[in-house]
Amino acid sequence: MHDDGGGQRDGAVVRDALGVGIAVGLSGFAFGVTSAGSGLTLLQTCALSLLVFTGASQFALVGALAAGGGPFTAAAGAFFLGVRNAFYGLRLSELLALPRAVRPFAAQWVIDETTAVSLAQPTRRAARLGFVVTGLSLYLLWNLTTLLGALGAEALGDTDAWGLDAAGPAVFLALLAPMLRTGTERAVAGLAVLLGLGLLPVLPAGVPVLVAALAAPAVLWARGRRNTPRGDAPGEER
Fold first, then answer.
1. So which residues are the signal peptide here (predicted)?
2. Cα–Cα distance between 38 and 15 in angstroms, integer?
């Protein structure tokens, strides 16, 4: 039987997808600990991972609640972080071209990791395989480790006494740092940190996160002003 290398290519896609799914899925431990430490019950913690399934938004939600923020403020911050998945979905919808009956279920797995693995593939077949393997492995492991982390936090009691309250922010930063590849992205992240930390003492819990979201349009506006030729400035005669 002639082997055109398709099996080897599929194996490479599966290996890479599993690597991403396992590496990121293990951070569900940190979410489970953080969520339980913020006062959410075991059922609420597991429901967040089962239904929301986007790590950054989940960490933002429980972080705001742990800081004393109201549920609506916490949910708003998580929502803004999750909006990016809608844009991922637009790109993946064209790339994967999944049947209509499958799309509502596939939408649950449209996150940073599945998007990155899918877009890295040379063919639609490989993109679909990468999406499914990454999504399935990450979803199963994330939910399992969320459960184990929450159970462990309940058994330990006060997570602050063990320093486990820092686990969530540490994992969030570890996931975010590799994504900051350009100067603009680093500028947005830096300004967001300054806004969030600077306003933390003067605004209610959870609100500084929302204000920090203004970092992106502010940096883009400043960059546009800098790149605009002087002769194109409004009201300036040529």
1. none
2. 36
